Fold this protein.
Amino acid sequence: MALGAGLLLSGTAEAADEDLLNAPEITISPEGTAGGRLYLRGDMSYAPWREEGDPYYRNFDGAGYEIVPFDSARFDRPVAVAIGLGYQFTDIFRGDVTAEYFEGRFDGSSLTATPCAGEGAGTSCSFSHSANFSALGLMANGYVDLATLAGFTPYLGVGLGAVHIDWKTVHESSACIAAGGACAGSAGAASFKGRDSWRFTYALMAGVSYDFTDRLKLDLGYRFSRIAGGDMFDFGAEALAGATGAKGHDDGLTRHEIRVGLRFAF
């Protein structure tokens, strides 16, 4: 009995050793768990939906200021480009720093109850303003990459930063409207020096990336961004009468963007 038990145990141990030798090798990819890869990104965006808030300007008559809202305001030129440098901290968390550039055009119209310059009492004045601006944004972003399926990885992100808005010369044209009086028929024109300033901005992102290779990814997503308001342009001739500060003020810009780009890991 002892001899039989020994032979049985010996055979069982040899079989177990043989199973271990024939077992498939299991490896864990450091890229999929540890992260730690620097990447470069480039993006282009299109913002078909934009909101300009409530921009306004001030008139000065020597005694006080009159705030005039733009009854109609529009921002054009929705395309932006961006580059950035990022780091994949883990297979879930990554972050990057981006620089973005875009340009814009503002067109606004307004109406005042006071007459245009040189017009008689009882008339009102219609104004049109137009200007171009350029914007350079710097932003720090953080992302959460969700589960990858067949090369597709959905993600969520948030960003904080600042945008430098540089308003160019603002052009104004005016026309008399005969309400209770008579217009002389002359149209007026003026120009104002634009202002520049740094504005706080934040963004919320959602999208999906696709793995072309283990290093190259296609990124397609949506971004909501909000840029704080600031000064647009200075006073012109009114400054000679004592007007101070900025004449025009924009209410910031809200952008709803569709973004597409590439990420390349080193």
In short: The longest strand covers residues 123-145. Helices lie at 2-22, 30-33.
